[in-house]
Amino acid sequence: MTERRDQQIHFRVSKVELERIRQKMESCGILSIGSYLRKMALDGYCLNLDLPQLRRMAYLLQNCSNNLNQVAKRANESGQLYAADLEDLRSRLDELIAIGKQLLAKLSEL
Questions:
Q1: What is any Pfam family matched here (predicted)?
Q2: What is the CA radius of gyration of the chain?
C-alpha cells in the first residue's frame, strides 16, 4: 500500500522562476509540477538520459549476437569459418567499443 500524501507545502515564486521550473520540468520529461518539485526536494536532481548512442549500441549488440550465432552454427555444421563473416563481426564490435567510450565520456561529464 502506498503512503497517503495528505500534507501540503505552499510557497511563492516569481513569474521568471516559475518559467524556469517549467522548462526544467519539461526537459526531464515530467508532466506534473507536483511530481517534479517532490522529486527535486527529495532527491535533489533529475536526470533525463536520452542518448541516441545507447540505442545504436543496443542495435549493434543484437546484430553481433545474431551474427555470432550464425557463425557458430556454420562452423559446427561445416567446420569452416568465413573471413568475411569474422571481419563483419569485428567491425561491428569495434563500433560498439567506440560508442561505449563516447557514452562513458558523456556520463563522466554529469
A1: NikA-like
A2: 24
Which of 92, 30, 23 has the alpha carbon at shortest distance from 62? 92
Give pLDDT tens digits for 8-41: 999 999 999 999 999 988 888 888 999 899 888 8
- Grid cell for residue 45: 536532481
The answer to pTM > 0.85 is no
Longest dimension (CA), the chain: 75
Q: Are 87 and 24 in contact (CB under 8 A)?
A: no
Tell me which DSSP letter residue 79 carries: S
Distance CA 53, CA 29 (A): 19
22's CB contacts (< 8 A; 6+ apart) are: 33
Contacts of 35 (CB under 8 A, 6+ apart): none
